[in-house]
Each structure stands twice: as C-alpha cells, then as structure tokens.
Design brief:
about 240 residues; alpha+beta; Endonuclease, Chain A; 3 domains; 5-stranded mixed β-sheet; 3-stranded antiparallel β-sheet; 10 strands; elongated
C-alpha cells in the first residue's frame, strides 16, 4: 500500500476523514479513515497490511502462482517475487537456454558462425525448409534441421571437447550431446556433428570450409545418397 496523501493532509485530517491509498496488490486507489490507518500502523508498524479488499489481501498472501513457460508454453509454478524480477519466465534451464539462443543480440564466435551459415544456406537452397535452433524435431535444440531430408547438423565448438568452464560443465554438455544423438537415431534423423573448435575468431573465409561440408552433405541427400554411417552419425573435423 502506498499513501496518496501528504503528511500535512494527514495531520490536518479529522479522525473519520477518508484518505486515499494505493492497494499493495492491485494498485487501485481506495480510501481508509484516518483512525483505521493509525490502528493498522500501530499493529504492524507499517502500511503493508492495508489492501482495498479481502480478496486482494488473500491473493497477495499467495507466494507462488501458475504461469506458462515463455518457450514451450508448459504451465508451471513460480514465486511471485521471482516473476516480478524477471522479464521472461521459463519452466526449466533448457527452455531458458533455447529462448536465449534464439533471441540473443550478441554472442560468441560460434553464434556468429551459425548466423552466417544460416544466411548462406537460405541463399543456396531457397526452396528447402530449414529449422534453425529449434526444438520441434527431438524436443531438444538442433543447430540446423531439414525436415524434408530428415537431416540435422550440430556445430560443436571447443566447449564441447575441453573443460573451459570446468569438468562438471563439460560433462553436462557431453551428456546432452549424447542425448541428442540417441533422440535423432530414434526418430530416423541423420545427424552430422561438425567440430568447429579450430575456429578461434569468426571470418567468412574461415567459415567457408564448414559451409562446404554442410553443402556437400545436403547435395548427397538430395541426390538420393546417404552420406552418413549406419550409426546415423557423421563427424566432420577440420584443422
């Protein structure tokens, strides 16, 4: 609750004179007699117990509410205080990461490579539908997925192979990589993993070799050939 009167107005008001307040829960203006305000302050020591109605008091006492995940739309419960502090709300870290990757305005060298590859592939294959950084195929993010060819690409930088952020982070990342492989195999999706850890900084001339790898595999698939082994895994490592 927030007083909408001045100290001078409060001091000169009569005991039964209504004074304007703002409800702590719904932010609507309501009125309380000066005596009621003084009585409440005497009991709790502040204005926080003043609400415009019993409903607002009850609603405000609820510490968590159900909301929809901004990425997958799954309903989940979250503390009201956390919701007020967050611009976006997600049901899990995976959804938060997926949303962040899709909406980031700046990023690492890998994200620059991915963005450049996306632009080039759309120019090279205007009639092919590409899904970039989406989770629709395996309920997990794939860097590049071509539904019509059941073909996917993952661009793995150095963080997938070396403990840059510690062994625990590396272990989680490699576990997730393995899960993606299994999920693709279960759904008949041929997965190509491209090791781009050799790229220390992004330049189109350096990125061209990765585009050539992807282009050659797509062209083989379009011709009716399968460029990938029986394990549905093709590792393209460059130096």
């Amino acid at each position: 609750m927030q007083p909408l009167y001045t100290e001078a107005e409060f001091q000169t008001a009569k005991s039964r004179q209504p004074l304007p307040l703002r409800c702590l829960h719904c932010n609507q203006t309501f009125y309380k007699d000066k005596n009621d305000i003084l009585s409440t302050i005497a009991k709790v020591g502040n204005f926080k117990s003043l609400f415009c109605s019993t409903t607002c008091r009850q609603q405000h006492s609820i510490t968590s509410i159900q909301i929809d995940c901004q990425q997958c739309s799954k309903p989940f419960k979250k503390q009201k205080r956390q919701i007020e502090k967050s611009k976006h709300n997600f049901c899990c870290q995976s959804c938060a990461a997926t949303y962040g990757n899709a909406h980031k305005k700046h990023g690492t060298r890998c994200s620059k490579l991915e963005k450049w590859l996306q632009e080039q592939l759309l120019l090279l294959y205007p009639s092919i539908e590409f899904h970039f950084n989406q989770t629709d195929a395996i309920n997990g993010e794939l860097d590049i997925f071509i539904p019509s060819l059941k073909l996917a690409f993952e661009l793995n930088g150095i963080f997938h192979y070396e403990p840059i952020y510690g062994p625990e982070k590396l272990s989680k990342m490699q576990t997730n990589d393995h899960r993606k492989m299994l999920a693709c195999a279960e759904r008949g999706i041929e997965l190509c993993i491209i090791d781009n850890s050799s790229m220390k900084n992004f330049k189109p001339i350096k990125a061209q070799k990765f585009l050539d790898i992807i282009k050659n595999i797509i062209d083989l698939k379009l011709s009716g050939s399968s460029p990938i082994s029986n394990e549905n895994l093709f590792i393209a490592s460059t130096t």
